[in-house]
Write a structure and sequence with these properties.
The chain is an all-alpha fold. The chain has one domain (1-33). Helix content is 94%, strand content 0%. The chain has one helix at 2-32. The chain is rod-shaped.
Length: 33
């Protein structure tokens, strides 16, 4: 049970990181234009 919760937390952190990276890339592209 605890292991499952830890895995879910890791997945959420990875998703947040991906979203932040996507927003960073989009903002850099918009700034370039």
């Amino acid at each position: 049970m605890l292991l499952l919760l830890l895995l879910l937390l890791l997945l959420l952190l990875l998703l947040l990181l991906l979203l932040l990276v996507d927003f960073g890339v989009i903002s850099i592209l918009c700034w370039r234009w």
